[in-house]
Write a structure and sequence with these properties.
With 250 residues, the protein is an alpha/beta fold. It contains 8 helices and 10 strands.
């Protein structure tokens, strides 16, 4: 396993990343909100790429994982810029971008910013525009906390740890990057895998996203018993098979 490396940013912050050199097209993994590059999906893809001599890169956004900063100080634009920085400075050649949850939003913004570098997209419970859905789901207590302190504490649905914080900056700045209200001008292969038991991302959102994408090369895989994480053995095999089929078609 490669050692953690850090990419210095102009503001003095550093983006933590792992990069395995190899053949292109490479795979660039974008994790979800309040997640990190050590997740099981990223590691499964890394192992799969390593066995085939294919380039692979994963990283932590500002405020996530091993990168510096606090998550409540981050926002969609900043995390998109983190992805752009990693793409430009660390990877080489065309990239298949895999985005999980919020990473699915980041992968779309990355492809719009660097269309010449991105050859395909694979979304796992892709969550474009999730900040609007999150805002509408806040309780009165959370709205009051947001107004008083600038952030709201949300329960952590997956761990027994502390609640995670959502900053006002994330919700407000996210409106500058909304995608689902207009056609998304991308012309490249896109695959979307979506669990129908996902309590965070409604499964019909995958169909809406597919409809908004300009490209005709879009396929949606609905997993009837799939949850938001899509990290079980069958889910991981589905991910690897889909990645392999995408790369074979390029």
């Amino acid at each position: 396993m490669p050692e953690t490396a850090f990419l210095a940013q102009p503001d003095g912050s550093r983006i933590a990343y792992y990069h395995s050199p190899g053949d292109a097209p490479g795979i660039l993994f974008c994790c979800g909100f309040n997640s990190n590059m050590q997740g099981i999906k990223a590691l499964a893809l890394e192992q799969w790429c390593s066995a085939r001599g294919r380039q692979f890169t994963r990283f932590d956004y500002y405020g996530h994982g091993e990168s510096g900063g606090e998550v409540e100080d981050g926002c969609i634009g900043r995390w998109r810029d983190d992805a752009i920085a990693i793409l430009d400075a660390v990877t080489s050649g065309p990239q298949l971008v895999v985005g999980s949850s919020m990473g699915g939003w980041i992968m779309l913004l990355l492809a719009l910013a660097r269309p010449e570098r991105i050859c395909a997209l694979l979304g796992l419970a892709a969550a474009p525009d999730f900040t609007e859905r999150l805002r509408s789901s806040l309780t009165d207590s959370q709205r009051n906390q947001l107004a008083d302190s600038g952030y709201a504490d949300l329960p952590n649905c997956y761990d027994d740890g502390e609640p995670y914080r959502v900053g006002r900056k994330l919700l407000d700045e996210g409106r500058s990057h909304l995608l689902l209200g207009a056609p998304i001008p991308l012309e490249l292969p896109v695959r979307l895998i979506q669990g129908q038991l996902d309590e965070d991302v409604p499964w019909r959102l995958a169909l809406q996203l597919a409809d908004q994408l300009r490209t005709d090369d879009v396929e949606v895989q609905l997993v009837k018993r799939g949850d938001h994480r899509l990290s079980g053995p069958a889910d991981l095999q589905r991910l690897l098979t889909t990645a392999q089929e995408l790369l074979a078609g390029l």
